[in-house]
Amino acid sequence: xxxxxGFPGGMPGNMNNLMKQAQRxxxxxEEQQAELENKEFSATAGGGVVEVTVTGKREVSKVKxxxxxxxxxxxxxLEDLIVAATNEALRKCEEExxxxxxxxxxxxxxxxxxxx
Length: 116
Hints:
This protein has three helices and three strands. The chain is α+β, with helices and mostly antiparallel strands.
């Protein structure tokens, strides 16, 4: 007699294959995430006077500012350039992450409630 909520004799063949495929996909995703975390993404703003670098962990690792961009009378402009460069670097990181996940999932964007 089957256990309540289970299948007689264990999982059907297709379900077993599906589980193996899901486990393989999970391993690949973990490997890709580890690779991504070791990468850096840089972006510039203001014609290159501000450069921001973020890691695959989405942490700012470096900010370079050309001294000519520092105007004590216009600090707001420098702040805007830093924000713009940071957002662009984060966008590059996100694009790379999505591209890697698409390779693994084969474009199953809705799988898992949109986790990918």
